[in-house]
Amino acid sequence: MSKAPVLRLDRLLSNLGYGTRREVQQLIWAGLVTLDGEVIDDSNQKIFVKGDLAARMIVDGELLDPPPGLALMLNKPLGVTCSHKELGPLVYALLPERWRRREPAISTVGRLDKDTSGLLLMTDDGALLHKIISPRSNVSKRYDVTLDRPLRGDEVKLFAAGTLILEGEDKPLLPAQMEIVDGKHAYVTISEGRYHQVRRMFAATGNHVTALHRDRVGGLQLPDDLKAGEYRILNEADLALVLEARA
Question: What pairs with residue 71 in β-bridges?
């Protein structure tokens, strides 16, 4: 088991976005930081950054923000982007303002385009991010797909064959699972993350995706009570679910 990292209190709070080193020192010297009910007024005090720290430390009357190692799921709304290269508001604006100043920064685990809604994972843990997106992890992603025209009937077999080559590419897709709901509605589960993959898969069959919503990553399901634009912090059990299911 790896040891909990140790940080100076002022550096910890600064890294969590509470302000510059000088600003958080002023906060500490004012007696506004407590740990286990005891005031800490020494900005140089070393703090063991363990998972339960957010439940034990209070800063200016509120529980400490989650320490590094944060992972969350966001129900991404339509029209919100994951990349600075796309027009529109960024997903980071849906998080608390202070979280946008954290170091290490919070990043999206993969991306959903502006016209796709649903389950988006975010973390400040680079190792976790790379583990989830690594092809070796084979993490599946399920999409709720609405189509412009009725299915032609061979899509389930075609997607499962592992022979479909998208336009402009020369490598076939890995097998994908498809569950038909009705003539214009289906669930598609993939384990790759190629550019606009699900949309291009249906384009290859002569159809057009009119709505796309991701509702599952691995074994983690987007909760029905998590509204568009809301987020929820993930625990170890949630993260185990992400890596549990295989496409």
Answer: 123
113 is catalytic: yes
The tokens describing 56, both together, are 């034990």
The two tokens of residue 206 are 């002569």
The residue with tokens 């997607």 is 159
Same fold, 6-63 and 71-135+219-242: no
- Separation in Å, CA 244 to CA 87, 101, 107, 198: 34, 32, 22, 22
140-217 CATH pick, 3.40.50.2000, 3.40.630.30, 3.30.70.1560, 2.60.200.40: 3.30.70.1560
- The catalytically annotated residue of 60, 65, 113, 215 is 113
Sign of the Cα pseudo-torsion (196, 222, 76, 110, in order): negative
Q: Which superfamily is assigned to 6-63 in CATH?
A: RNA-binding S4 domain (3.10.290.10)
- Is 0.85 topped by the overall pTM? yes
Question: What burial letters (b/e) apply to 162-199, b meaning 16+ CB within 10 Å?
Answer: eebebeeeeeebeebebeeeeeeebbbbbbeeeeebbb
Give the pLDDT score at 188: 98
Task: State the pLDDT at residue 42.
Answer: 96
Task: For 71-135+219-242, give the CATH class.
Answer: alpha beta
pLDDT value at residue 245: 53
